[in-house]
Amino acid sequence: MEMTKLRIAVFNMRPDEEEFFSIYGEQYHTELSVTNEPPTLCNLSVTEGCQAVSVITTPIGRELLDAWKAQGIQTISTRTVGYDHIDLAYAKEIGITVSNVSYTPHTVAEYTVMAMLMTIRKMKTILLRYQVQDYSLSQVRGRELGNMTVGVVGTGKIGEMVIRNLSGFGCRIFAFDPYEKESVKAFAQYTNLDTIWKECDMITFHTPALESTYHMVREETLNQMKQGVILINMARGAIMDTDALIKALESGKVAAAALDVIENEGKIYYKDYKYAVTGNHDMALLSTMPNVLMTPHTAFFTDEAVSDMIQYSIESCVAELKNEENPRRIL
Ligand code: COI
Q1: 12: Cβ below 6 Å to ligand 1?
Q2: What is the domain extent for residue 313?
Q3: Looking at the whole model, is its pTM more than 0.85?
């Protein structure tokens, strides 16, 4: 007898995700209702007849949660590590469970080290100049990582992998996390944030967007940092007060930055704005700075990570709907 398949609504499905949804959808015996649109109150037809939803970073608030609840949605899986876009408290209140995924930490960790090296070797300028046949050496002399003190804020899976990757370069590594891990201590010295601000030549952030990490980089903390510090943010835009960062870049307090994320990127990244106006003044200004390397939230984007995101999102929905233990449940 054919069992009724569990139905999962999949939002924001990109063409590169299709092959994995097809593989894992079948493997976990699910039926998928897919759209490339973000979830809104205008596309409730996608969730009709489904019990679970898979989303990425679109904000999901009360109205949408209420509408989905009325349709019979029992669980939401965000196929991202971050879950700050979902109103968790309200989902809990109305009895919808929420889970996230974790994917190979190598993807963001490798990208972080790449961004660090590109930043200290002034690669943005070198590549731009090469395009116009300017092969001169002025302004492109770099620094070596082995002579630097690097601060890693957040030593979850990604932060720890960044530290492991960095350990081969011979730099001094300071780490901060409210939960210290024994496995990190072989490669880095845990310290407090004040010491990170004061001692480090380069600081990289690998923390979630929480109330406690909101604008962790702001005028007051920037003032404590070394003159000419380099900042790397591959985590969440909300960690940095963008206005304060811009001022610090303009004054030279911050010598360079690599930003894969920025405040208010939500409606812009992953779309083609070549012939359109983004209206994001900060992005426009920062992208003109030769010492600021900006990428559109692509640190996660590898074959391995995309496969993990989809497999674990479907697995998580199925576990919830079958009332099985789900290690990915946030609440
Ligand atoms: C996450 O997994 O939290 C990410 O930042 C990647 C995502 C926006 C696709």
Answers
A1: no
A2: 3-103+303-321
A3: yes
